């Protein structure tokens, strides 16, 4: 019995160490860039978006809003108060929907993490998240023109924690907070990845998520709901699943439903949407991720 446990521990350490070496530097680079954007660029992004509110850009503003949402480093609980301040300044709900949707799905730090999945997966993630933000804005523009979609009552723009007079210490403090927020999920993701590699046959992954089958895309969209922990924590899992035969469409579907249905994001959104629009949001996320996964499989 001891020999079996020792052997399994060796196998586990092997898979863990290989995965750690492959992902670690992407994680470090992602945190550094994420903290840099948060400290030195975030306010410029938000001020640019706020300044666009006075311009008559029409539907083009939805496209710009989706791009700026991806560029914003804030999490959902940070994005909602910012969006509330945009709304008070008169920005339309379709722009806000595009900004918030893409901000939920992607940020500069997660882009760096996702590079570990390869160029194809990275481009698929960026493009699909950008398009989902646009789709959200377009739907609000069509169906809620002249009607309020969000309720930001009670939300105020948060005070920045990056206030140290020294730019270097401001950056380092943000980086430390970043490490504390992501390190546990990063390690947990590698542990789960090692367990999958050791105990889940590649044939099982191919059967569930491989090929161009709609069933695989649906399964990936579905498991994205309970399995998504944080962006960095899912990258080791996705890397393992891709290696084991998961289709790119299934990966895309998982990457869209995961962050969009992360429990903390859902809690924040339910506050500003109300139950009816919250259910519409969930329906939109699931349908968009499923259809996108099918299209990605056909194209890629």
Notes on the structure:
This protein has twelve helices and no strands. With 300 residues, it is mainly alpha-helical. It has one domain (2-299). The mean pLDDT is 87.
Give me a quick take on this structure.
The protein has 300 residues and is an all-alpha fold. Helix content is 80%, strand content 0%.
| Low-pLDDT segments | none
* Helical residue percent band: over 70%
Number of domains: 1
Q: What is the global morphology? A: globular
Residue fraction in strands: under 5%
**Strand element count:** 0
Q: Tally the helices.
A: 12
- As a whole number of angstroms, the C-alpha radius of gyration is 20 Å
N-to-C span: 47 Å
Topology:
Layout: H1 2-52, H2 60-71, H3 76-88, H4 93-105, H5 108-114, H6 119-143, H7 167-199, H8 202-209, H9 214-227, H10 231-244, H11 248-260, H12 263-299
Helix pairs in contact: 1-2, 1-5, 1-7, 2-4, 2-6, 3-4, 4-6, 6-11, 6-12, 7-10, 9-11, 9-12, 11-12
């Amino acid at each position: 019995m001891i020999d079996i446990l020792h052997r399994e521990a060796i196998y586990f350490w092997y898979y863990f160490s290989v995965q750690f070496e492959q992902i670690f530097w992407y994680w470090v680079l992602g945190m550094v860039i994420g903290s840099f954007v948060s400290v030195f660029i975030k306010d410029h992004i938000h001020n640019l978006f706020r300044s666009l509110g006075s311009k008559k850009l029409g539907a083009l503003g939805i496209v710009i809003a989706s791009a700026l949402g991806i560029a914003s480093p804030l999490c959902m609980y940070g994005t909602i108060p910012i969006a509330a301040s945009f709304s008070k300044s008169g920005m339309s709900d379709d722009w806000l929907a595009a900004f918030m949707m893409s901000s939920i799905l992607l940020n500069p730090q997660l882009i760096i993490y996702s590079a570990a999945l390869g160029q194809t997966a990275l481009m698929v993630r960026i493009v699909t998240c950008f398009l989902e933000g646009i789709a959200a804005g377009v739907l609000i523009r069509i169906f809620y023109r002249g009607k309020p979609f969000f309720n930001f009552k009670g939300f105020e723009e948060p005070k920045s924690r990056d206030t140290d007079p020294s730019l270097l210490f401001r950056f380092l403090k943000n980086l430390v907070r970043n490490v504390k927020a992501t390190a546990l999920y990063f390690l947990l993701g590698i542990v789960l990845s090692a367990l999958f590699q050791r105990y889940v046959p590649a044939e099982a992954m191919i059967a569930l998520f491989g090929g161009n089958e709609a069933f695989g895309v649906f399964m990936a969209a579905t498991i994205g709901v309970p399995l998504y922990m944080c962006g960095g924590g899912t990258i080791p899992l996705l890397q393992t699943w891709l290696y084991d035969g998961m289709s790119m469409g299934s990966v895309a579907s998982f990457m869209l439903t995961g962050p969009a249905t992360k429990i903390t994001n859902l809690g924040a959104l339910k506050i500003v949407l109300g139950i009816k629009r919250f259910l519409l949001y969930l329906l939109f996320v699931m349908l968009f991720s499923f259809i996108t996964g099918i299209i990605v499989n056909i194209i890629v």
